[in-house]
Amino acid sequence: MRIRPYTDRDWHAVVEICVLAFAPIYESFENLLGSELFRLVYPDWKASHEQYLRSVADAGRGKLFVAEKDGIHPVHQRKGLGTLMYGHVLENMRTAGMKYVHVDTGSDPSHIPAQRAYEKFGFVPLPLVHYYKKV
Fold it and tell me: pTM for the whole thing?
C-alpha cells in the first residue's frame, strides 16, 4: 500500500470513489430532511463534490493524494487506508507549519465511521446543530 501524489489519470477513479463514499451520507440526509427539502439544500451534491475535487486537483502538486493498493476503490474501506492517509496528510500539514486542523462531520449514523477516524487521531468534537426548514 502506498500514498502518492494525484495525477490526471486518477480523475475518474477519484470522482467515482468520492461519490460512492458520500452516497450513504446523502441518503441519510434525504431520509432526515425529506426529499423536497433535501433537493433544496443539496440540489446536486455529486456535481458539488466534483467541483470541489477539481479545485483541489487544480491547486497544484501536493494538495491531493491517492492511496493505492492493487488499484483504488471503496472496497478497500476499513482496511487501514484512511488511517494511513490521515497520518500522511496531518504530517504534511504539521511540516508546513499549520497550527490546527478543522474538519466537519455529521452526527447521524452514516457519519459514525468518520467520527471514529477523527477521534482516533485526537480531533476534539465541538457539538453544533444545524437546522433546516423549507419556507
Answer: 0.77
